[in-house]
Design brief:
seven-stranded mixed sheet, alpha/beta, 7 strands, Class I SAM-dependent methyltransferase, S-adenosyl-L-methionine, Rossmann fold, methyltransferase activity
């Protein structure tokens, strides 16, 4: 369930069929580089022996980066075609054994069972049906005591991406409410909430940027 697709509001299209088509037939829609906000937010966390759940992993760049840092990763996406790309890239990166478990699942109906030291959902937006708020609530429940929850989303996109009005994206307050931690108490502490500028290159080759939202929480140990 890739996290970067934008555009029209949700329409009656089968989500799995949509994303299989998005990644199928040899397509490589993303750069293969991990999301810079995730790298900046998670890079200082101790990784060896710890577990991470990457929701909507797409072609696996974040999962591969996490595994290279020492995390044991469960990477979940609705599209088997996306996971195939991730497996290929993981092999190319020399990641073998159980460093990454690739799991096909529709997060609307088949959320992974268990808890993880890190749960990450980067750009969990979709032009087709997606129960995003419910998924994020389940993501919060999947964080182990003492673990971290990282939600990254779009806030405003560069104008060249759209001919008409850009889509509306959830605010940081919306995300916290979706997570069920809008009133953060003893169970959760806020590590960082922020609106972050992300550099991009426009189609004409000129520098550009977009703004993204970051919600980084930590669950209490008890």
């Amino acid at each position: 369930m890739n996290a970067h697709q934008h555009g029209d509001p949700a329409r009656p299209v089968d989500p799995r069929e949509h994303w299989e088509g998005f990644y199928g037939a040899g397509k490589r829609p993303w750069t293969g580089k991990p999301n810079t906000i995730l790298v900046d937010a998670i890079g200082d966390l101790a990784a060896p022996g710890r577990t991470a759940l990457d929701l909507g992993c797409g072609s696996g760049a974040d999962a591969i980066w996490l595994a290279e840092q020492g995390w044991t990763v469960t990477a979940v996406d609705i599209a088997e075609a996306a996971l195939d790309i991730g497996r290929d890239h993981a092999r190319e990166a020399g990641l073998t054994g159980g460093a990454i478990v690739w799991q096909q699942a529709d997060l609307d109906t088949d959320f992974p069972t268990g808890t993880w030291d890190l749960v990450s959902a980067c750009y969990l937006h979709s032009t087709v049906e997606l129960a995003r708020a419910d998924i994020l609530h389940k993501a919060a429940a999947a964080v182990a005591p003492g673990g971290a929850l990282l939600i990254v989303g779009h806030w405003a996109m560069p104008a060249w991406r759209f001919d008409g009005d850009p889509p509306a994206f959830p605010s940081i307050d919306d995300v916290l409410a979706d997570l069920g931690v809008d009133s953060v108490g003893s169970e959760w502490s806020i590590v960082r909430t922020d609106i972050v500028d992300v550099p991009m290159t426009a189609p004409d080759g000129n520098p550009s940027s977009r703004t993204d939202t970051l919600v980084h929480l930590r669950r209490s140990v008890s």
